[in-house]
Each structure stands twice: as structure tokens, then as C-alpha cells.
């Protein structure tokens, strides 16, 4: 990383040769242009800085000053998160006649997959692979929320307190170096065990000298592989795409599709770096509740260059060797590395507490997706008994599996083992689960054969489907406008169906409601609104971890106020004393 020069004054057409991770791979020439090195935020913010410079108003942090949700740094982070969604969806391209044999074969394969005269048995087989192909979203139209509201169940106060605690830990994950272990234990009963930064610092002490001795010319694969991948599509763009008019979106498209369009050597280089045991694309920390023998694993969201590499490598691959379960490759590769890093802490806790050991996995955004995969990998690899794994609770996380519900059924897991909480207008959970325009689907299938066999894309025009319980968080309307499908006012709702007479029909209703919600508003609709980009814009406002935390706390406080009004002061004071610790911003 440090060996790379990202300055704007870097001369164009400079060729560099990289040797990835010290391997004897063929030398790849990288042509760097000014437009390839344009970043949406200051370059210094892309370096690992041990949790960034965010100063949160957390009682267990060194910094105690309150920082507004809409400050400049938070806005830039939110805007960056929104950009990758834009790049996935907003592909303004036209196909062009070409003599490129590889491109011709891809287009022919795509045309064959869309052939209406295909064998009926083949179509039936594909339908079996798709979990939510048969859904009717018409009843959840934009004109009425009555049908949708029938499927909503308000989350009880005790459960909301749990989510408040987990969202607070998710916020801490962005400020790990500022955590004060004494205050964390004193105010919240949690003992800080370790973190990814602590492990990296320990490993770096003994590895720097060794690396200099054995690989004196090796550069950081995190940046090298990404830049090589970013150059691939641009060098092939004249034979692949023709844009209507030159625009800034061309550069966005180049960088967004570079990794999935690249050859396997480049993609494997990116995957190998994400799968490293010496670094983490997302920082994480571990803390214990010694009273209940529960260990919490908390993973932050996209906050580094490496984490964005995970986002960009979004092609589907088999999950743990299973043909019928496909997963976002970048997130999966990152999860493998984090899994190896966390495993010693998991085994140590099991050895200490044996059958009484319990584990919580939680995270925000990309960190939520990583938490889910690590949890499932522990079960599939039989490292942890199922009874020890508590529900995975994730906030604002994109869906990253096609066949995830099927996998949960195979493992005998209930739906509530995965609890995905989505702020009502958050763009990130919609990114891979909204309806993709036809030209985007065709583009992805043409540049990468893995997308041509993805059941979710073939039948539903989306990449990955939600799994487990789907919870919707609506904040106060003064913070963010209410969603037209939801009841007025703030609330935290579980999307469910109480009809137990026909489970299959109930599941289809839930899936249809999910589909309607995730397409309203559609990510492109959010991104097309100029007001989305600003200190109070929807992108940062509705995805920031602090927004989740404050919204849940507000709902809890409203519930307590309502209880006070209905039941009198004594009951209210009793409930309030039980809730303060869960709110996590005051002493219990």
C-alpha cells in the first residue's frame, strides 16, 4: 500500500510491473491514468488508520464529544458507500459488433439462455433452483399499504433492547482504538478480549523483517491486484462496450466491473488478498459477558480499500462446495480470512465454558454479511455446536447468498437464526436484492459466465436474496420521511405471516412483501435524487450505523413513555431501570 503513489500529479501512461504476493506469476503491465486514480474522498482516508478519525459520543471511548450524524466525514463515507451501489446498477451502455471471439461466445451463450424454445424440463429444473421466483407483488403496490401492514408484527420491548445493545457494539466497531476497556466493563458488563488491530500489531512485529528478507520487492497485493483488475476492463473496453456519450459514469463502470470482468488470475489475486490471515478487510473486536458465558464478535462495515475490494468482487461462487448455494465471492473470500483469525478465540471460549459457551455475531453493512458467513461456516465445518450459536443480528447488510434459505433448512436452523434489520430507506440492503434492469443483467452475464447460471438473476433479475427474519426499522418522520408501505410513526417491525395452515403460501407472501419493499424506493430512484447527496441526504442518513442506534433507542424511549402514560409512574420507573443498561449511553 505504502509503495503506491496516488497523487493527482502522477503522469499518465506510466507502466508498472507487479509480482503479486511474491508468486511466480507472469508480469502484468499496469497503465495508470489520472482518471483511474480519482477518488471520491481524500486519499489519506483510504489508508489503514486503526479505525479512522471518527469521534463518536460513546461512554466507553476516549473521545466524549458528541458528533452530529451529518458531519462532513460521515457524509463522505456514506457517499462512498452509495457509489458502489450506483456502479452496480447504473450501466449506461450499448452493445457493439466486435470480432472478439470471447465476447462473441459470451453473447451467444446469453442469447441461448434467453431462447423461448428451450426444453420445458430444463425450465422446470431452473424453477426448482429459485427460492422466490413465484411471487405476486401486485398486492403490495404503492397506492395502498394495507396488505403490507397485515404482515408486520411490532417487535416487543425486550427484543428491541437486545437490538439496541447490538447496534451500540456495531457503532463501537468503527472506533476500536478509542474503546476504553474499563468503561466498557463498568457501564455495560462487557470485557474487551481482543481485536483485529491487536492481532495485526502482534503479527507485524515478527513478520516485517521476514518479509523484507524474503520478498524485498513485493508490493501490497491489496492495492496492486485491484489496480491490475481496474486496468483490465479499460484495456478491453473498446471491444466490449460503446457508451452513448462520454461521461463520468464510464470511469465508474470501469472500476466497478473490472474485477468481475477480469481473468481468473486477476480475480484470484484479489481473492487471495481478501483471504489473508494477516490483515482484515473490515476491523473487528471481541468482548465477553462473563455472567452468561457469551462471547460477542463484532465486525465493522466498509471502511478501507480492502473492504471495497470485497464489494467489487461480487460474482457468485459455490459456498463451501455446495452446488445449490451460491455466494458473493468477495465477501466469501473475506469471510474465510476473518474466520481463520477468529477461530482461536472461538476455540478458547469453548474450551473454557464447554457446553455453556454462547456466541453472538453481529455487524453493520459489509460487516453484517461477514458475520453471517462466519457463523454458517462454523456450523458447516462442525467447529461449534448449534446450541452454542445465538442468532446472527445484522444491520444494513446487503444480501450475499442465492440459496441461503435452502441452506438454513438443511442445517435445521429456524428463520430467526438470522435477523436482518434494515432502516426503511437504506440503499445498501437493496443493492443486490432489487430488480436489475435488463441491460445490466445482460451485461453481467456477458462479462462473467458465473452470472449466466445464477438462478436469482435468471428468474428474478436480482443477484442475491434475503435470508432469515427480515426486520424493518422506521425512525421518527422528523429524521427521515416515513415509508409509504409502513404504518405512520416510528417503529421496529418483523415481516412475518401468522397463517400457519399453509406454510408454503405464507413464505411466498413474505417474499413478495420483501420484494416490494426492496424495490420501493429502488436504489436508482434514491441515487437519481440530488438531495440524497448531502449532510442530511438519504445515502448517509439512512445507512450510517449511528442512525440505526439512535432510531432503536428512540423507539424504546417512545415505548417507555407510552407505558408510563398508560400504567402510571411505578411501572414506568421499573421498566426504565431495566432499560437504561440496554440503551448503553447512561450508567445503569
Structural features:
disordered N terminus, Rossmann fold, three-stranded antiparallel sheet, globular, 588 residues, nine-stranded mixed sheet, alpha/beta, 13% strand
What does this structure look like?
The protein is built from 21 helices and 16 strands. By secondary structure, it is of the alpha/beta class. It has a single domain, classed as Rossmann fold. Helix 5 runs antiparallel to helix 20, helix 11 crosses helix 12 and helix 20 packs antiparallel against helix 21.
- CATH homologous superfamily (4th level) name: Alpha/Beta hydrolase fold, catalytic domain
Task: Indicate the proportion of strand residues.
Answer: 5-15%
* Main pleated sheet: 9 strands, mixed
By CATH, the architecture is named 3-Layer(aba) Sandwich
β-strand number: 16
Detail the poorly predicted runs.
1-58, 63-82, 90-100, 120-129, 132-137, 211-254
What is this structure, in a nutshell?
With 588 residues, the protein is of the alpha/beta class.
Present the secondary structure layout.
Blueprint: E1 14-18, E2 28-32, H1 72-89, E3 94-95, H2 101-113, H3 120-129, H4 146-149, E4 152-154, H5 157-172, H6 181-188, E5 191-195, H7 196-214, H8 221-240, E6 241-242, H9 248-261, H10 264-274, E7 284-289, E8 294-299, H11 305-312, E9 316-319, E10 322-328, H12 329-353, E11 358-364, H13 366-380, E12 392-395, E13 401-402, H14 404-411, E14 418-423, H15 438-447, H16 455-460, E15 469-474, E16 491-495, H17 503-518, H18 523-527, H19 538-541, H20 545-567, H21 569-583
Parallel strand pairs: 8-11, 11-12, 12-14, 14-15
Antiparallel strand pairs: 1-2, 3-6, 4-16, 5-7, 7-8, 9-10, 10-13, 15-16
Amino acid at each position: 500500500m505504502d509503495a503506491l503513489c496516488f497523487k493527482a500529479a502522477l503522469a499518465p501512461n506510466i507502466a508498472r510491473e507487479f509480482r503479486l504476493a511474491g508468486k511466480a506469476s507472469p508480469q502484468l503491465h499496469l497503465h495508470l491514468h489520472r482518471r483511474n486514480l480519482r477518488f471520491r474522498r481524500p486519499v489519506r482516508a483510504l489508508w489503514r488508520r486503526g479505525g479512522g478519525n471518527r469521534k463518536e459520543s460513546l461512554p466507553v471511548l476516549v473521545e466524549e464529544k458528541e458528533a452530529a450524524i451529518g458531519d462532513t466525514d460521515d457524509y463522505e463515507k456514506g457517499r462512498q458507500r452509495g457509489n458502489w451501489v450506483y456502479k452496480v446498477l447504473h450501466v449506461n451502455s450499448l452493445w457493439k459488433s466486435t470480432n472478439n471471439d470471447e465476447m462473441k461466445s459470451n453473447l451467444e451463450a446469453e442469447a441461448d439462455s434467453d431462447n423461448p424454445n428451450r426444453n420445458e424440463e430444463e425450465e422446470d429444473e431452473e424453477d426448482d433452483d429459485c427460492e422466490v421466483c413465484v411471487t405476486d407483488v401486485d398486492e403490495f403496490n404503492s397506492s395502498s399499504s394495507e396488505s403490507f401492514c397485515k404482515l408486520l408484527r411490532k417487535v416487543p420491548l425486550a427484543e428491541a433492547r437486545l437490538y439496541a445493545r447490538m447496534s451500540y457494539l456495531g457503532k463501537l466497531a468503527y472506533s476500536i482504538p478509542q474503546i476504553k476497556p474499563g468503561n466498557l466493563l463498568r457501564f455495560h458488563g462487557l470485557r474487551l478480549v481482543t481485536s483485529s488491530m491487536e492481532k495485526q500489531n502482534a503479527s507485524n512485529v515478527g513478520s516485517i523483517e521476514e518479509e523484507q528478507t524474503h520478498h524485498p520487492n513485493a508490493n501490497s497485493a491489496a492495492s496492486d491486484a485491484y489496480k491490475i483488475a481496474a486496468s483490465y476492463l479499460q484495456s478491453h473496453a473498446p471491444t466490449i462496450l460503446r457508451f452513448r456519450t462520454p461521461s463520468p459514469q464510464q470511469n465508474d463502470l470501469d472500476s466497478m466491473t473490472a474485477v468481475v470482468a477480469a481473468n481468473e488470475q486477476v480475480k484470484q489475486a484479489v481473492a487471495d488478498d481478501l483471504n489473508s490471515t494477516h490483515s482484515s478487510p473490515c476491523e473487528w473486536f471481541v468482548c465477553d459477558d462473563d455472567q452468561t458465558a457469551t462471547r460477542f464478535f463484532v465486525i465493522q462495515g466498509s471502511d478501507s480499500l480492502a473492504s471495497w475490494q470485497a464489494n467489487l468482487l461480487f460474482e457468485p461462487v459455490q459456498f463451501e462446495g455446495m452446488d445449490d448455494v451460491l455466494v458473493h465471492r468477495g465477501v466469501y473470500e473475506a469471510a474465510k480470512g476473518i474466520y481463520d483469525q477468529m477461530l482461536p478465540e472461538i476455540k478458547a471460549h469453548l474450551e473454557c465454558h464447554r457446553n455453556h459457551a454462547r456466541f453472538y455475531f453481529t455487524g453493520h453493512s459489509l460487516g453484517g454479511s461477514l458475520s453471517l458467513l462466519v457463523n454458517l461456516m462454523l456450523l458447516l465445518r462442525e467447529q461449534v455446536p448449534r446450541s452454542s450459536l445465538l442468532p446472527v443480528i445484522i444491520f444494513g447488510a446487503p444480501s450475499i447468498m442465492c440459496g441461503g434459505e435452502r441452506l438454513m433448512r438443511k442445517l435445521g436452523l429456524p428463520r430467526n437464526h438470522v435477523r436482518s434489520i434494515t432502516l426503511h430507506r437504506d440503499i445498501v440492503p437493496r443493492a443486490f436484492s432489487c430488480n436489475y434492469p435488463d441491460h445490466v443483467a445482460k451485461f453481467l452475464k456477458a462479462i462473467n459466465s458465473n452470472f449466466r447460471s445464477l438462478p436469482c438473476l435468471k428468474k428474478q433479475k436480482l443477484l442475491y436474496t434475503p435470508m432469515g427474519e427480515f426486520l424493518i426499522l422506521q425512525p421518527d418522520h422528523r429524521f427521515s420521511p416515513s415509508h409509504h408501505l409502513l404504518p405512520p410513526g416510528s417503529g421496529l417491525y418483523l415481516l412475518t405471516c401468522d397463517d400457519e395452515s399453509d406454510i408454503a403460501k405464507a413464505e411466498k407472501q413474505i417474499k413478495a412483501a420483501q420484494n416490494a419493499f426492496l424495490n420501493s424506493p429502488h436504489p436508482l430512484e434514491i441515487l437519481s435524487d440530488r438531495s440524497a447527496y448531502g449532510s442530511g441526504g438519504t445515502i448517509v442518513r439512512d445507512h450510517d450505523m449511528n442512525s440505526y442506534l439512535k432510531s432503536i433507542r428512540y423507539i424504546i424511549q417512545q415505548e417507555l413513555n407510552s407505558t408510563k402514560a398508560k400504567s402510571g409512574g411505578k411501572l414506568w420507573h421499573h421498566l426504565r431501570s431495566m432499560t437504561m443498561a440496554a440503551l448503553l449511553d447512561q450508567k445503569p
